[in-house]
Specification:
mainly alpha; 16 helices
Length: 333
């Protein structure tokens, strides 16, 4: 952890203590506590699943095996990776540590970005929840999947041509072992596990997963804290009151998706609840497509993988592509 990261975490703890001591017992404090707890409790199980999956990727999937699974053509690799969420069904709360492991294993940057953005949307559980939320509509569930995958592929290809992998990824804390330890005396066995038994590999996978969970969970906590604070300060009724107009509702619903930090396996039910308020399908779709790609907690979690330049590019491309796609949908439907 750099000095700036350490200072930011100290500042975060000071703010937390100030809120607890200054606002405890107020209605705003209880509202904040409920929202913060719901975001963390909703995301933690999925993030735990993701870090465990990342641990298994680290131990059981060699770099050569991963590269051999991807098509040789960079463009085909990006398209393949955008659909990889069907085989690895993780939501956006869990996908960041998995992507980090894939990148460490040598997955091309564009392919990793396509998986990062498309994986939580092609997830079969997300498709099913959208299908149920919209009264068993194959059309809407399929439209969400195709929109998300199409945007993920476009951004993956664009990122691949705009920035190199060295420029996009944060440097490792040290030249030490890949498990995330900061010292060669960490107590873990970093020797080649190719000849180890299954039990030894299983233990190593859980060890890697635990280290990743500790490393990334702090970003989730900070992101959830900021999201809860914004939702406490800005009443939802005030947000709903400005959701007027077919085109203007799209960016407003996108902003709502960023602030609410919902899990992709549950956000379709929230999006569907806006239909009786007169919110158009394109705006609802903007909410469901953007949310799994970009929200406050995700931006914070992205800092554990990507550089500031990469995050700025990624955020800009996501906003532009989602907005353009949904405006086009609104115009042609």
């Amino acid at each position: 952890m750099g000095r700036a990261g350490l200072y930011s975490q100290i500042i975060f703890l000071v703010i937390v203590l100030w809120i607890v001591t200054g606002f405890y017992g107020t209605e705003a404090f209880y509202t904040f506590s409920i929202i913060f707890s719901s975001i963390v409790l909703e995301a933690l199980p999925f993030m735990l699943l993701g870090t465990l999956m990342g641990g298994f990727v680290e131990v059981f999937l060699s770099r050569e095996k991963l590269i051999s699974l991807l098509p040789a053509s960079p463009k085909k690799a990006i398209i393949f990776s955008a659909f990889l969420g069907i085989l690895l069904p993780v939501c956006e709360c869990a996908i960041v540590p998995v992507v980090r492991k894939f990148l460490q294993k040598g997955m091309p940057l564009g392919a990793a970005v396509a998986f990062l953005l498309g994986g939580p949307i092609v997830n079969p559980l997300v498709f099913s929840s959208t299908f149920v939320a919209y009264s068993f509509s194959w059309e809407i569930a399929g439209l969400r999947t195709l929109s998300g995958v199409g945007i993920a592929i476009c951004i993956g290809m664009l990122i691949d041509s705009c920035i190199t992998k060295d420029q996009a990824l944060v440097p490792k804390p040290s030249s030490g072992p890949s498990c995330g330890c900061h010292s060669p005396d960490c107590g873990h066995n970093h020797s080649d596990l190719s000849s180890a038994g299954f039990r030894q590999k299983l233990g190593a996978a859980f060890s890697h997963g635990a280290l990743d969970f500790y490393d990334i969970a702090r970003f989730l906590i900070i992101g959830a804290f900021i999201a809860a604070a914004l939702q406490t300060i800005v009443p939802r009724q005030a947000i709903l009151s400005v959701l007027t107009g077919e085109i203007t509702a799209i960016p407003l619903m996108m902003g709502l998706a960023i602030v609410l930090n919902l899990c992709s396996e549950a956000d379709a039910f929230i999006a569907a609840s806006f239909a009786p308020l007169g919110i158009g399908l394109a705006a609802q779709m903007a909410f469901m497509v953007l949310g799994p790609m970009l929200d406050i907690k995700l931006v914070i979690m992205y800092t554990s993988v990507f550089t500031r330049k990469m995050i700025m590019l990624l955020v800009s491309f996501i906003l532009i592509f989602v907005f353009t796609a949904m405006v086009f949908m609104e115009v042609v439907t």
